[in-house]
């Protein structure tokens, strides 16, 4: 994963991602790692990982930042143009592996699109 030095802190943070199938909020990450590192370190590592194409961030319905692992991104470009799904019952957010089409607008350049779908997740439905 590029130029990121694999420090102990980076390893711990990636571990939290590896143990989770869904996306993680910044609040959850800070809480989860508070025994090993402070808030500032968590933010700094997340920033670096996002620049390197390891994770991507997006906002939930309350405007809180969440992170999820990228699948095919590089340090040059994020190619995650997928919607996110937030469950209104349990609050879980997942990346949906479906493509969404971004409209082309003649006099604008579009760099990213955030689509947040809200509803009820499979485990809350059953
Ligand atoms: Zn990405
Ligand atoms: Zn749910
Ligand atoms: Zn995602």
From TrEMBL:
Pfam families: FUR (PF01475). Coiled coil: none annotated. SUPFAM superfamilies: Winged helix' DNA-binding domain (SSF46785). InterPro entries: FUR (IPR002481), WH-like_DNA-bd_sf (IPR036388), WH_DNA-bd_sf (IPR036390). This is Transcriptional repressor. The lineage of its organism: Bacteria, Pseudomonadati, Bacteroidota, Flavobacteriia, Flavobacteriales.
């Amino acid at each position: 994963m590029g130029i990121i030095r694999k420090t102990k802190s980076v390893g711990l943070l990636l571990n939290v991602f590896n143990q989770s199938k869904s996306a993680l909020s910044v609040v959850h990450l800070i809480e989860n790692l508070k025994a090993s590192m402070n808030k500032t370190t968590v933010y700094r590592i997340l920033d670096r990982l996002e620049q390197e194409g390891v994770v991507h961030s997006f906002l939930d319905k309350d405007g809180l930042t969440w992170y999820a692992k990228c699948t095919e991104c590089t340090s040059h470009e994020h190619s995650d143009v997928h919607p996110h799904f937030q469950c209104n019952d349990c609050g879980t957010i997942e990346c949906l592996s479906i493509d969404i089409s971004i409209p082309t607008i003649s006099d604008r350049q579009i760099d990213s699109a955030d689509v947040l779908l809200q509803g009820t997740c499979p485990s809350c439905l059953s």
